[in-house]
Write a structure and sequence with these properties.
Length: about 800
């Protein structure tokens, strides 16, 4: 009987591929095991076994697999079901989910090796100079890699040379798979076997009297063993004996000392052995906790609506504690990596080494270790805290899923595919495991709040701040009026300036929010009006003063700040608008005594970037912190007495149906950083339009009013939650071809779906990285079959790809576009 396997390849192809295996391999393999498989002419890919069967493929001859890469599955059945759901729901391939879900080190890549063809006699005079260099190198080395050939001939593109050598039969190519993950090994030492008896030891110490340094190393080893009663690291022995690595190595070479290795994780908890007691909940938290329990009993996803600083985290901690007491795993999802750094410390105080962290700032090796710990259900990975990618970990006994700040748009993945929403995907994951699911936020999304109101979700709320601290006092400042009366100091109104002064004099800290990084978004010539544009995208370049650079925030293009206007040669260059960098510079002039710092994408690029800034601010080493929206998410600073919002209008005037909802959420969240302990905090919102309805609702904390108003508007204009939305984006480098393709697709869709297709229309930034973009919006009314619409779109895409001139146009689906 013949055996076959269907595998998932990490490439964007719809179908699974079938490979042939022997009976012995069939007995070894199971779904979730990785295998190396040949694909195409010469590529070798890491594939994942999906199922084992006896049916040969109809259309092609099944190839044999290259090799088996795992003894045990690295992906479990829950994950495969979850991936299938993500691929179907978000209209992408399961291969794209596979590539996105597992750490990069699991996707072994094949490296092309260049070998000398020993079967053929080569006439050296027939070879060109660069070909001869490669040929000669292969006499000294058995194989070369592509980048090594590049270094030998000193050229970036070496493919033409390799092609010529292949044609002349000088070289052969071979694909070699290599493992990217390397376990971290710690080197330990002990006394050699032959010196364990007392006589031999005495003789050894006598012979070492002529080598005092070596003698000192051996004596230090005895002392350390007597004190610690545990294996001795080489580094500890170096420190204790004061000897160099070379001295220890010579003792190892003489077999007086023996080296051995222990495997260890790269990230380990190094806190205290004793964990803190859980804090007692106050009456409001206790009431919410009981409501959550009641809803969990009915197997409902539950929404916790708690005002900022109401102590939602303590409720979460209590639920996590209950979950791990039952021996189950808990997943705690957060929208921002900045948030994880503060929460890790709090959770580790309670749960010690049971907490693991998983997000993109961790390197590939560290992520593999967390993955393996979760897979093996180790106690050190019983609680996983992380950003959206953490929901792909191989949980097999998940008891609780918490999605904190569930309203955040950072939970939606935009590029590359799968373009999933982590909150929705986490709910499906929780249901697969039969676990409890809790969504928490001070400003829930309209959809979640509506589900809570209609009884689809369970609902619990905390309406008082912890310790009965008052909600911050909010004040709106009219920038139009202040500018007219000439009361502005840079971008600071007189009111904000005086409040900052007062807060600093009283020893408080200040947070200033400006949702744009860099110094200024536009540099303009005051003579001719020209402003430098990005050559690859339809945007003006942002000025970053600390590097004296103009940068594009879409493609990363950058250039030095020009001295003169590139259009007319005039020296009169001026900046328009302002970002966090400019606010920071103005603060240094206005408050030279205060220590000012900035928190945005530019200052938090390193692995520990967030941690350094947050810790310094918590320890009151920083007086004023200026930042973008990464400041607004649930961070807990005890000493912030004032929050200033530099320009609320930039959030309101945005071409998006969620702009007002987002503005309310952002401003409420950033205001919630103020006055979190005894003294009431103050929030000052600067705006050119202080009478705007949303700003009034923010200042009176009227979530209900905002919810009803937004819901009414969305129903009028057929936007979620009334309708579902699928956004289809077309991408191509030729403007005319893109237009034709988008029009063709829209027309075909209208024929099958009727009038619920909007567009095609250019987005506000219509060209990114030299690719033109055009969008279509498909609205799906409630009650219409979503899967039916999706299959209609897929049918249209198949016809679209059959038209030769449209084949090169990329079609991107974004389901539940937000």
């Amino acid at each position: 009987m013949e055996y076959f396997i269907d595998v998932i390849l990490p490439i964007p192809l719809e179908k699974l591929f079938t490979y042939k295996i022997s009976q012995a391999e069939a007995e070894l393999l199971s779904p979730g095991v990785r295998v190396g498989v040949p694909f195409g002419k010469s590529k070798v890919y890491t594939a994942l076994v999906y199922r084992i069967h006896n049916n040969p493929p109809d259309v092609y001859e099944a190839k044999e697999i290259h090799k088996i890469l795992d003894d045990e599955p690295i992906v479990n059945r829950f994950q495969l079901k979850h991936w299938k759901w993500i691929a179907d729901y978000y209209m992408c391939s399961i291969g794209e989910v596979f590539r996105s879900a597992v750490p990069g080190a699991f996707l072994l890549e094949s490296e092309t090796l260049i070998l000398r063809n020993t079967e053929v006699e080569i006439e050296e005079s027939q070879l060109e100079d660069d070909e001869f260099l490669v040929f000669e190198a292969l006499h000294h080395q058995s194989s070369l890699k592509v980048h090594e050939v590049s270094a030998i001939v000193d050229r970036k593109n070496v493919l033409p040379i390799l092609n010529r050598l292949l044609e002349k039969n000088v070289i052969l190519l071979k694909e070699e798979i290599y493992e990217q993950y390397k376990p971290k090994l710690i080197k330990y030492v002990k006394l050699g076997q032959s010196y364990l008896s007392e006589e031999n030891l005495e003789a050894l110490l006598k012979t070492l009297t002529r080598a005092p340094k070596q003698s000192q190393v051996v004596l230090s080893l005895f002392q350390l063993q007597a004190v610690h009663k545990k294996p001795i690291k080489v580094s500890e022995l170096e420190e204790a004996s004061g000897a160099s690595k070379a001295v220890i190595k010579s003792l190892v070479d003489k077999e007086i000392l023996e080296e051995y290795f222990f495997r260890t994780d790269r990230v380990n908890y190094e806190g205290e052995e004793e964990n803190s007691e859980l804090k007692a909940l106050n009456e409001y938290q206790q009431k919410a906790f009981e409501d959550i329990h009641e809803n969990f009993g009915k197997e409902l996803v539950t929404l916790l609506h708690g005002v900022t600083s109401s102590g939602k985290t303590e409720v979460y901690v209590k639920l996590i504690d209950e979950c791990i007491q039952k021996g189950r795993q808990a997943l705690y999802l957060l929208p921002e990596i900045a948030l994880t750094t503060q929460l890790i410390t709090r959770l580790q105080q309670y749960f010690g080494e049971k907490v693991s962290v998983y997000h993109s700032k961790y390197n590939v090796q560290e992520r593999v270790e967390v993955w393996n710990n979760v897979l093996a259900q180790k106690s050190k990975a019983q609680i996983v805290i992380g950003a959206r990618s953490a929901l792909f970990l191989p949980f097999s006994n998940l008891g609780l899923v918490i999605v904190d700040e569930e309203h955040e748009s950072s939970f939606k993945q935009f590029d590359p595919a799968p373009r999933y929403h982590a909150r929705d995907a986490a709910i499906v994951l929780g249901n697969l495991h039969g676990s409890n699911i809790l969504l928490g936020s001070a400003t829930p999304s309209i959809e979640s709040y509506l589900n809570g109101q209609r009884g689809k979700y369970g609902f619990a709320e905390i309406q008082r701040r912890f310790g009965n601290v008052l909600m911050p006092d909010m004040e709106l400042v009219d920038l139009k009026e202040q500018t007219r009366k000439k009361r502005m100091k840079g971008h600071f109104s007189e009111r904000l300036f005086l409040e900052i002064e007062e807060a600093l004099n009283e020893g408080g800290q200040v947070i200033l929010f400006q949702n744009r990084r860099g110094y200024a978004p536009i540099v303009e010539c005051t003579t001719c009006g020209h402003s430098p544009q990005c050559p690859n995208c339809d945007v003006s370049l942002t000025f970053h003063q600390y590097k004296k650079q103009l940068r594009c925030h879409y493609c990363g293009y950058h250039m030095a700040l020009p001295e003169i206007c590139q259009a007319c040669g005039s020296h009169t260059l001026d900046t328009k608008g302002f970002g966090t960098e400019q606010v920071e510079k103005e603060l240094e002039t206005l408050f030279p005594e205060a220590k000012t710092w900035r928190m945005d994408l530019d200052t938090t690029r390193g692995k520990h970037g967030y941690e350094k800034i947050i810790t310094a601010f918590e320890q009151q080493e920083i007086d004023i912190l200026v930042g973008t929206q990464m400041l607004t998410k649930g961070l807990d600073f005890r000493n912030v007495s004032l929050v200033g919002i530099m320009n609320a209008d930039s959030l309101l005037n945005f071409p998006d149906y969620r702009a007002h909802e987002r503005c309310f959420q952002l401003l409420t969240q950033v205001a919630g950083r103020a006055g979190r302990t005894q003294k009431r905090g103050k929030v000052i919102i600067q705006s050119y339009n202080p009478y705007h309805q949303i700003l009034k609702q923010v200042s009176t904390n009227d979530f209900e009013g905002m919810f009803k108003e937004q819901l009414y508007e969305r129903e009028q204009y057929k936007y979620p939650p009334k309708n579902r939305i699928i956004k289809i984006t077309f991408k191509h480098k030729e403007y005319n071809r893109l237009n034709e393709a988008a029009e063709w697709f829209a027309k075909a869709l209208r024929n099958s779906l009727g009038g619920n297709v909007l567009g095609p229309e250019y987005p506000p930034v219509a060209r990114i990285r030299n690719q033109f973009l055009k969008n279509l919006l498909v609205k799906i009314p409630n009650g219409t079959s979503v899967s039916g619409v999706k299959s209609g779109i897929r049918r249209t895409e198949r016809s679209f790809n059959a038209v030769a001139q449209f084949r090169s146009v990329r079609v991107i689906y974004n389901v539940d576009h937000i």
